[in-house]
Specification:
7-stranded antiparallel beta sheet; 178 residues; 5 helices; globular; alpha+beta; two-stranded antiparallel ribbon
Length: 178
């Protein structure tokens, strides 16, 4: 087998860390939704999530000001709406109305949950030291919600260039993890 070089501009397609999520924020009575795929777990307990939100995104200013959000985890059934949210700016558009998504009340933050999503994580920004240089926010999850009726949720994973992979079959292997 011969290997060949791979363009550095496409390395992200090899390392996408997890499912595409919908980040909700709210400020001055107006909610917003942003599609995000650049996030990573940083700690188990308490759950700490690192995420990149470009300073060109409407959500960046809201998150920087309010320091709270909800990470909503959609399943493949919401793929078209998820991509639509990512291709639309919330600066002038109410994405909840345009994409017919239902805002639900969170218990600890002002940002709404997205009712149609499989899971919702209420978060607060706990570290901003890398925001100015890398647009990298560190969030702590303070409350988590899950739909117990969904037994095998199939999440979507962004591969870049308009391509997505759908999570599928689960396998179980021996592990010392709890």
């Amino acid at each position: 087998m011969r290997k060949r070089t791979y363009p550095l501009s496409r390395v992200y397609r090899l390392l996408e860390p997890g499912p595409v999520v919908l980040v909700t924020t709210a400020r001055k009575g107006r909610a917003n939704i942003m599609t995000m795929s650049w996030h990573t777990m940083m700690e188990f307990e308490p759950p700490i999530v690192g995420c990149v939100i470009s300073n060109r995104n409407h959500t960046f200013g809201i998150l920087k000001a309010t320091r709270e959000c909800v990470i909503n985890i959609p399943t493949v059934e919401l793929a078209t709406k998820t991509v639509g949210c990512g291709n639309t700016s919330g600066k002038r558009v109410d994405k909840f109305k345009v994409f017919r998504l239902t805002p639900g009340p969170a218990s600890l933050v002002a940002a709404p949950l997205i009712v149609e999503c499989y899971a919702n994580l209420e978060c607060r920004v706990v570290d901003t030291r890398m925001v100015a240089k890398y647009n990298f926010f560190i969030l702590e999850v303070f409350k988590a919600w899950i739909d117990p009726s969904r037994k095998a949720p199939r999440t979507i994973h962004h591969l870049g260039m308009g391509e997505f992979m759908v999570a599928g079959r689960t396998i179980t292997l021996p592990s010392k993890m709890k």
